[in-house]
Amino acid sequence: MTFHLIEKYAPNAKTACDIGGATGVYAIPLALSGKDVCLCDISQKEIDLAIQKAVECGVKLQVKKCDVFTDDLFLGKTFDLILCLGPLYHCHNERDVREVLSKISLIMHSGSVAILAFLSKYAKLNKTSRKTQIDKDDMRNLINFHNFINESNSGLFIFREKPELPISYVVPEQISPFLKSLGFIVEDVVAADVFEKCAPTAEYSEIVRFTELAYQLGRSAKLNDGNHIIVVIKK
Ligand SMILES: C[S@@+](CC[C@H](N)C(=O)[O-])C[C@H]1O[C@@H](n2cnc3c(N)ncnc32)[C@H](O)[C@@H]1O
């Protein structure tokens, strides 16, 4: 879905910054397609794997280890395409969310496109409902999670501390007004995982046609049908 959105909204991007880019799932193919790509991540382990992959693929990838909540990204530099597919659902609180968005705004110019991923507050419900059999642990987890959401009663965002990284959820239908209130133009909001992954045996042309259908359904279906809510913004 992300590549579908990149192709739709930023087909001519020459420079890209992947914030929370991990092992380069998006950064490496973007570099392979000829873009000048920077990848930032808080984890040195992920960065090392991205460097290794870039070497194996023979592409140039600029990397930066940084915590997007506290560190500067690229002072004075802007990018045609910005991906932030991770850090926005690992925020401790709303201040972190606003901080990431203001950092993104700083590296955008007037034609830039940024693609952001949020985690829906219905993610656990969706995941459980897709299981062929729901066992007692699934039931307990889902009930606990929904009790937690109801108790936190916190508006647009729900923040959950975890031993490794915090997890933040959003109420999908409220994300667009929030981003507009910060001055962004919201181009698209798509529930990204209306379907599970395509089988690797599927033909490429079938996958392309199917992804277009998933995109249309993700836009028109109620947003609680997807776990990841992908938002395309401009400045
Ligand atoms: C769920 S992974 C997503 C990876 C990749 N963007 C993708 O979509 O496949 C989230 C990534 O965000 C990174 N991350 C989390 N918090 C971060 C922060 N504060 N600053 C920079 N990176 C962060 C993690 O290290 C991890 O690699």
Give short descriptive properties of this protein.
9 strands, 235 residues, single chain, two-stranded antiparallel ribbon, 8 helices, alpha/beta, binds S-adenosylmethionine, 7-stranded mixed β-sheet, Rossmann fold
Overview of this protein structure:
This protein is an alpha/beta fold and 235 residues long. 39% of the residues lie in helices and 23% in strands. The chain has helices at 2-9, 27-32, 44-57, 94-106, 123-129, 136-152, 172-181, 204-220; strands spanning 15-19, 36-41, 62-65, 79-84, 108-119, 157-160, 167-170, 185-191, 228-234. The strands form two sheets. A seven-stranded mixed beta sheet has the order 3-2-1-4-5-9-8, with helices on both faces. Strand 4, helix 4 (94-106) and strand 5 (108-119) form a beta-alpha-beta unit. The longest helix is centred in the middle third of the chain and has 17 residues, at 136-152. The radius of gyration is 18 Å and the shape is globular. S-adenosylmethionine (SAM) is lined by residues 20-22, 25, 41-43, 46, 67-69, 85-87, 90, 165.
